[in-house]
Amino acid sequence: MFPGTQGGPLVHIMAGESSLLPRGFAAGIRVYAEQVITNARVLGRRALRGGFRVVSGGTDTHLLLVDVFSKGVRGKDAQTDLRRRLPEPVFRKNLSNEARDLAHLRSRNRAW
């Protein structure tokens, strides 16, 4: 351990938490949170029906990890397309065997 490098209570985080905490007790927040999870599950089922691999097999939270590369779609292309279509944030992540597949694409001189 090195003194001064571990961080500490960050005032902007404490302020954000204290301003949002009362909203967590509001009557509608539970219904809203349950609907968000339901929507993520529906999206996961539709991705499976579309032939995509849902890496975790489904979701119990608001997050969903879908392997689009197995269908020949690059993550960057899927991210760009989904960001145009969805109001929710969309991020991409490399999966364990994707690096090997990306090297194969590079060898074919495919544009990045």
The major β-sheet equals:
2 strands, antiparallel
SS-based class = mainly alpha
Mean pLDDT: 77
CATH superfamily: Aspartate Aminotransferase, domain 1
CATH architectural group: Alpha-Beta Complex
CATH C-level: Alpha Beta
- How many individual helices? 4
Radius of gyration: 19 Å
Q: Tell me the total number of β-strands.
A: 2
Number of domains: 1
| Helix/strand order, N-terminal first | HHEEHH
Instruction: Report the β-strand fraction as a percent range.
Output: under 5%
In helices, the fraction of residues equals: 40-55%
CATH domain topology = Aspartate Aminotransferase, domain 1
Shape: extended
Strand neighbour order, sheet with most strands: 1-2
Low-confidence stretches: 108-112
Distance between the termini: 42 Å
